[in-house]
Design goal:
Length: about 290
Amino acid sequence: MPDVPGHSRIMSCMSEPAPATYVMGHNDRERRRLAVQASILRRFTEHLFCRAGITTGMHILDIGCGVGDLSLLAARLTGRTGSVTAVDMDPAALRVLHDRASAEGFQNVTCMESDIHSFQPANRFDAVVGRHILIHTKDPLRTLIACREWLQPRGIAAFQEYDFQQVTPCWPASPVRDGIFTLLNTFFARAAHANIGSRLFHLFLKAGFAHPDCRGEFPVDGGPESPHHEWLAEATRSVLPAAKAIDIPGASDIDIDTLESRLRDEARSGSGVPGPVMFSCFARRQ
Ligand SMILES: C[S@@+](CC[C@H](N)C(=O)[O-])C[C@H]1O[C@@H](n2cnc3c(N)ncnc32)[C@H](O)[C@@H]1O
């Protein structure tokens, strides 16, 4: 992996044998989906970072960073005197983040290729952040306990996770969209931790954090031009191979190449199109 002096750095600490699997796959379409999703969720994450007190001079760890939207947001907040360490198992996603960080002139973003289950940082951090990563870990509580150990005393843990079991229906009804959410819920219940968002508060307590500050929210958009349709169609495309492999009902019947246009057509009714329910939670290490 390249190491560009004076710019963000990429390092690898993948151990053997490692490979954890990411059920949404590692490919350019999935990385683009992460970027679309990030543009929709950015204000929710900014709000979480603001509530949690992410600020100038902090040394911040972003686990499961993907193409790096949380890392870049953290780098903007922490400024030159702080730093961001961004960890992901996908080297191509890290290269995208590295290029984005360099383009923005950040010299304090270090990208590390690692399976989070075997990650062992050399330093402690002022904050550990993550979005949609605990859902993919083998044991979210163990990961959260490890995050707590990576924090300085009074350090901040801040996470955002979906709960696919709490689906807000469209009004007027939108059967194509509702059917996709049923499929995603069934899939994540089998392949990951579908209700991780609702569990966050409890997990924070079990991991040793006192007084977590937690709330649930979701974006609502509408109309045929909404980015929500690409977001949902591409999320479905990403999970489809794994969903078919474990025989999730309906997975083999989806015409994935027409899904986005069918969602757009359905939204001509003027219905509000809610995104998945997302929980945002933070707490300090005592
Ligand atoms: C849903 S994406 C979220 C990316 C980013 N946090 C965001 O919100 O845009 C999950 C990311 O976690 C990474 N990931 C999944 N399991 C991992 C593991 N065991 N170790 C390191 N990264 C992992 C994936 O490669 C992917 O980039």
